[in-house]
Amino acid sequence: MLPAPLGKGRCRLLARGYRNFMTWGVKLRPRWLDHLNTNKILEQDLPLIAGQQAEIERLGRSLKELYLPLKTSDTLVIEYRKWLDKFGSSLPFYHGYSTWKNVENGELNLKPILLDRFSRHTLICNSCNRAYQVTNKVKQGCIGVAIALAAVAILADDSRIRIAAISVSIAAIVISVMAHTLKTHFENSYTRH
Length: 193
What we know:
The chain is mainly alpha-helical. The protein has eight helices and four strands. The strands form two sheets. The protein has a two-stranded antiparallel sheet.
């Protein structure tokens, strides 16, 4: 995995998965489902990363003084930070390896660090946001269908219509509960208890 910084507090994660089995399943699986599964792993580290970021900004020192790189795994990170040292001065803010420029806007510094999936990912990601909206509409639609069919069952004279209306109403309630459960996965992180 390779994070590509997009701005202060935002990055894009570039990941590549390899397999030589069930490749048809990968092609059929929606992107938002991959994101839900990937976020299980990433969200475990988010509080630690946010805490480190806040501490680095509080200390106001260079990463070269604060950071103990591992030669086996941090080479790309260090090279990126050194690249920022050379070319980052035109950016509104950056944190290179030995130089940095902070935003002096008090509004950005007063914002709390949000660690929830909804504000950190679902609202930003097109596929997850679309799936969240659809899930919410399915939930609301199924509740409406269940209520309408319950009314039909109460008013129906024929027992076959009554049984069919009750059965479909129960199925709509089950689908609504499933949609609500999926909706909460888009809102809440897996690290909450």
